[in-house]
C-alpha cells in the first residue's frame, strides 16, 4: 500500500527524517552493551599478551632440559634450570594481570597452560631427577615411591578449589622442585627422602592453606622480599656445590620455617573467621 501525502505522509520532511532514522537503526546490527564498552585491543597489545603466554610456555622447554640434565647425571645443572623455572612461574602471573591477557586473548586459556607447565616443572621433572640421581630406594620400591607424589599432584592440579578465594594453596602445593633441591643440597639418605615424599604426599590431601607468595595479600611485601632473598640464596648455594656454606643453607631453611609459620597462622585465621 502506497503512503498518503499530506501532514505526516511520506512527503513530510519530519516523516522523511523518521524513515531515514529507522532505516539506519534497522540496518545496524545489535550490540551487546557490555561488549560495546570494552576497548578494542590493538595488535601490539594482543602481541604482548601472546608474548606473556609464550613466556609461560617456555617452562615446558625447561622441564625437558631438566629431564635431559637428570639423564646426563648433572643434578646441579638440573637445579639451575629449576631456578629459572621458579623465576618464570613467579613473574608470569603478574605480567599476565598487568597486560590483561584474558581480555586481549579471551580464546586462550592461560590458567590451563600454567597448570601444565607447573606440573612438569614442579612435579614430574623434579621427581625424575630424584630417581635418576639415586636419591630414592633401589629397585621397584624406588619406582613405586616416585609414582606417589606424581599421583598426589595429579589430584591436586585437577581440584577446582586448589586455590582459595583469598589466594592460598589448599593442601601441600606440590613443591617437589624445592624438595629435590634440599634432598640434593643436604645429600639426604634415600630412606629419609622416602619419608619426606610420603609425608608431603599425604599433606596434599590435608586442607591446610599454604602461602601463595606472589598473590597472598597478607604480609605481601614481606613475602615477596623474603622469597626474592630465598631465590638469591638458592643461586648462591648452587655456585658452591657440592660443599655449600652451612650458613647459607641454614638461612634458606629459615625461609621455609617462615613460610610454614605464616601458612599455619593464615589457616587458623580463616577457620576462626568461619571460612571453609
What does this structure look like?
The protein has helices at 13-27, 33-37, 43-71, 75-99, 101-104, 110-132, 139-157, 176-185, 190-203, 220-239, 246-272, and strands at residues 168-170, 209-211. By secondary structure, it is mostly helical. A two-stranded antiparallel sheet has the order 1-2. Mean pLDDT is 87; it is low at 1-36. The protein has a single domain (42-272), classed as Up-down Bundle (Four Helix Bundle (Hemerythrin (Met), subunit A)). It contains eleven helices and two strands. The longest helix is centred in the first third of the chain and has 29 residues, at 43-71. 69% of the residues lie in helices and 2% in strands. α10 (220-239) runs antiparallel to α11 (246-272). The chain is globular and about 55 Å long.
Largest sheet features? 2 strands, antiparallel
Quote the CATH topology. Four Helix Bundle (Hemerythrin (Met), subunit A)
| CATH class wording | Mainly Alpha
Query: What gyration radius follows from the Cα positions, in whole Å?
Result: 28 Å
Instruction: Please state how the strands of the largest beta sheet are arranged side by side.
Output: 1-2
Structural class: mainly alpha
Shape by Cα distribution: globular
Order of helices and strands: HHHHHHHEHHEHH
Give the percentage of residues in beta strands.
Answer: under 5%
How many helices? The count is 11
What is the helical fraction, as a range of percent?
Answer: 55-70%
Q: What is the annotated CATH architecture?
A: Up-down Bundle
- Spatial gap, N to C terminus: 69 Å
- Total number of strands: 2
Uncertain parts: 1-36
